[in-house]
Amino acid sequence: MYKIILATRYLLKRRITYFAVLAVALSVFIVLVVMTVMAGLVNEFKEKNHRFAGDCVVGTESLVGFAYYEDFVKLAEQQDFVEAVSPAIKSFALKRRRGSEQDDITEIMGIDPVRHSQATGFGNTLYFHNDDVSRTFEIANDANLVGCVLGDFMLLQDSNSRNYSATSLPRIPYSISCFPLTARGALARAGTDMVNTKTFYFSDQSTTDLPRIDGSLVYLPFEQAQQLCGMAGSNKRASRLHIRFKPDVKIQAGCEKVQSLWQKFRQDKAGEKQAYSLDTVTVQSWKQYRRSSIAPLENEQTEMSVMFGFVGITTVFIVLVVFYMIISHKSKDIGILKSIGASNIDIIELFSGYAFLVGIIGSGLGLLAGWIFLLKINPIEGWLFRHFGFQLWDRTIYAIGDIPNKVEFKILATIVVSAIIACLVGALIPSVQAARQKPVETLQVGQL
Amino acid sequence: MSKNDFILKAEGLHKSYRMGTNEVRVLKGVNLNVRKGEFVAIIGASGSGKSTLLHILGALDKPTRGVVRFEKRDLSRIGSGELNRFRNKMVGFVFQFYHLLDELSVLENVFLPAMTSRSIAGWLVCRRQAKNRAKELLAQLGLAERAKHKPYQLSGGERQRVAIGRALMNEPKLLLADEPTGNLDSATGNGILEVLEKLNRAGQTIVMVTHDERIARKAERIVTLVDGKIEHKNSGSL
After folding, report:
1. CA dihedral sign of residues B122, B126, B127, B130
2. Distances (CA, A) of B14 to B11, B27, B180, B223
3. What is the pLDDT of residues B144-157, one digit of tens each?
4. CA gap A186, A188 in Å, rounded
5. Looking at residue A58, what is its pLDDT?
6. Does a structural domain hold residue B227?
7. Number of domain units in chain B
8. Which among A213, A398, B14, B176 would be 20 to 30 A from A61, CA to CA?
């Protein structure tokens, strides 16, 4: 009991302790703010990728796609864990805006907008047709024209405008050229007319907030893309199938079920004419499918965590120095306590308790300050932008809305526990040295 | 009580310190017996090792050689946990510079030894009893009104009386006082000595170290430390 009383009194009476508390609070504040923002950005980025890909993707990176996809779509749609399936064509093409002399390499994605919106978050990324995705590729007043959807960054590059008014949607024609390929990967056409070209008109823009997607992807109607890529015909092919699971199905479990379904499907199709096209098809969760985009950001998060781990180490040293100073002033107390029967362990416990209090109070203050700061981080950034033109991220370049400020319990708990451990580690060596002090040395007249 | 009923026996105590390359021999074979209820004063010149001897007798320090027996138990043969209990229950120390904890009140300083030996649960069970005992001691020492004060708010004499109260808290069998009046003026010092005499009359065994013969005369027996060894004399012979 006396250890609790003394530790509390030391904390309140020794002003130098306030520096240790302040150091812990500051470290906790910095780590909390940075980790929360970073984790928020990473989670937001993952969620955007999740919305883009759906829960599971069955597909191939090969430009020729794979056959019998319709049969698998039917099979998948019969499964009780599957909510929706959307086949898609993916390829590369040359895009030229009419009036321009320049061809740009672009990615094309052929989709059925209704099915794709059911399987992914596509519908919500549209600017004009998010309330009626079935009209995504329609061009007003002319049913003969076929629309295309451009990523908003692509639109910005093309027209220096990221948004158009729905009432005055310009009719911008784009010619899209593809090299149609056979199921074996050869050019479908020989001679001079090797390229399929078709004109599409700007019908909507998509904002996934994934810069690479929004800057390079053109969505086309599924059948049109299929024809352009040479995947139409008697044995139609698709590049991939986006699958959404029922809400209660876990991604991993759902993907495993799709995997076994696919294995069975492949076996059933083994004798078919284009069964070889199924060899390159993989079943991936959305995370695996988008890992090339997610992994660098996760790495950055890890690096950031390591960097801020050093803040923790700095805290350990600050606490160590402060405790050395405190304990050197308290050697008389140690002698007194030992003279009335306190053991070495008691002395270590006393100063560890003291360090624990420093850790608890420091991290409490740091958490409170960090929480308030995070709560106000967006208004603060807004104020800085209005008065000084300062923005943490230039919103014309980065696809970031508000700065993420939702504190995760896991991060919070990790920071608090780490801060307390840092204090205990910092106080350990001085405490052990204090415990080893001989009472006669500390109580001698010369020591006073 | 038998004449040979010794509470404390020190036999052939040696203590030396290493100072650089030199070895300083402070005690050179000290023999000392203390009977139950006795008031012994150890006197000697400054730096003669009086305090070192007292610390060894109270198990605050270990002799380089020799044996200290407390109620026939060899202190060198008991473990550190037992030694801590020994310091907590069997002996009470009173130091020249009081050595009170500034963060605690007078009352808390007095019942600190009772808290030290108990767990939180143990303390919660007996805290009322311990506080009452501490208050009683403070009342006996004339400090009832000072219970809530902090040590730095007291005079030197008052602080020393608080230190005596703390030393007596666990009703130790042996009270060791190291120059208890050394930091006090003559009148205040006499007051402290009166307290010690009163305690001794009530049966408390006391070993007191002092450099002042006048103070030593208050003791029942005076032991003089000369050249690291003890000369036994009666108080009347001084």
Report:
1. negative
2. 9, 5, 25, 17
3. 888 899 999 998 88
4. 6
5. 95
6. yes
7. 1
8. A398
Query: What Å distances lie between residue A219 and A53, A100, A207, CA to CA?
Result: 14, 20, 12
Distance of residue A446 Cα from the nearest chain B Cα, in angstroms: 11
Domain boundaries, chain A: 2-47+294-447, 61-280
User: Tokens 């695996």 correspond to what residue?
Assistant: A288
Query: Is residue B124 in some structural domain?
Result: no
Burial environment of residue A211 by CB neighbours within 10 A (0 to 12, 13 to 18, 19 or more): middle
Q: What is the model's pTM?
A: 0.72
Q: How big is chain A, counted in residues?
A: 448
pLDDT digits (tens, 9 = 90+) for B104-115: 999 999 999 988
A104-119: average pLDDT: 93
| Cβ pair A440:B60 closer than 8 A | yes
Question: Is A225 in contact with A92 (CB distance < 8 Å)?
Answer: no
CA–CA gap between residue B118 and residue B126 (Å, rounded): 9
B105 inside domain:
no
Between CA A43 and CA A49 the distance in angstroms is 10
**Local confidence band at B238 (pLDDT 50, 70, 90 cut-offs):** very low
- Whole domain around residue B199: which residue ranges? 6-90+172-237
CA proximity to B205, closest of B160, B156, B167, B163: B167
Give the closest of A6, A332, A346 to B99, CB-based. A332
- pLDDT score recorded for residue A219: 95
What gap in Å lies between CA A323 and CA A326, rounded to an integer?
5
The closest of A335, A338, A363, A344 to A423, measured between CA atoms, is A363
CA–CA dist A255, A249 (Å, integer)? 10
Q: Is residue B143 part of a domain?
A: no
Q: What one-letter code names the amino acid at A80?
A: D
Q: Is B228 left (phi over 0), alpha (psi -120 to 50) or beta?
A: left
CATH of the domain at B198: 3.40.50.300
The predicted-structure confidence for A267-289, as pLDDT tens digits, reads as follows: 998 888 888 888 889 999 999 99
Chain B, nearest residue to A439 by Cα: B60
Q: How many CA atoms lie within 13 A of A355 on its CB side?
A: 34
Cα Rg, chain A, nearest whole Å? 32
Please state, in angstroms and as integers, the Cα–Cα distance from residue A196 to each residue in A90, A249, A295, following that order: 15, 41, 36
The complex scores an ipTM of 0.87
- Tell me the C-alpha distance between A243 and A283, whole Å: 10
In the stretch 298-357 of chain A, residues with CB closer than 8 A to chain B read 332-333, 335-344, 346
Identify which of B97, B108, B166 has the shortest CB distance to residue A448: B97
